[in-house]
Amino acid sequence: MTEHPAQMSEAYSLGALLTVGGGFLDAYTYFTRGGVFSNAQTGNLVLLAIRLAQGDLTALPHYLPPILSFAMGIVVAELIRDHFRTSHILHWRQAVVALEALILLVTAFLPQGPWDSAVNAAVSFVCAMQVEAFRKIRGNALATTMCTGNLRSGTELLYHGLRDRDPVALKRSFQYYGIILCFLLGGALGVWATDLLDELSILLCCGLLFVIFLAMFRAPQKVA
Asked: How far is Cα 13 from Cα 155, in angstroms, rounded to an integer?
């Protein structure tokens, strides 16, 4: 099989770190900012529908901002890609990571309570940019902020790998399951960190994103 250069942003190690951050942020907003998911907009939509069906209109300002902010994050990620398309200094995904870290840094110093809605919207915006910018790992379509699609793809590859005795499919399936484990690890770290640091725990994600930003200056890897 011929080797070809891949973007450093598609390296498995970076994808794993991004996924740890994705799980962390979901736990962070759920436990410190009023039970709202930053990544799982399906969950927010379901919770919103339930509350509205119960006649509770106060759910609108609680769940609608992160949903709308997530959509806006997709748009901004595409604008950043267009702007940095010809840049020889930063890859556009590095610009996304830098903006993510900056936004999370600001939210760390917004106290719990009156600022929860704004923080949830900001974190959902960050997660949307990440899911739009980082959609492949080693050439495989893979999400770093949610698990449903990864679970489907990993299980499908596992089935075909076992049925056809295909080691390549099995290896790819294990990569998907590894990413799911990283998400679970991030969620667990988010719980422990918020217990210790409350809203300041999000600074750990800022540090993680800084490491990822620096790592992306490395030359592209060779992958089969």
From this structure: 21
The pLDDT value given to residue 142: 86
Closest C-alpha among 46, 96, 51, 89 to residue 67: 46
Taking only the tens place, the pLDDT of each residue in 78-101 is 999 999 888 878 889 999 999 999
Instruction: Compute and round to an integer the Cα radius of gyration of the chain.
Output: 18
Ranges of the chain whose pLDDT falls below 70: 1-8, 219-224
Helix boundaries (H) for the chain? 12-32, 41-53, 59-83, 92-107, 116-133, 148-164, 167-197, 203-215
Place of tokens 């699609």: 149
Nearest to 125 by CA among 48, 29, 210: 29
| Closest C-alpha among 47, 49, 25, 53 to residue 38 | 25
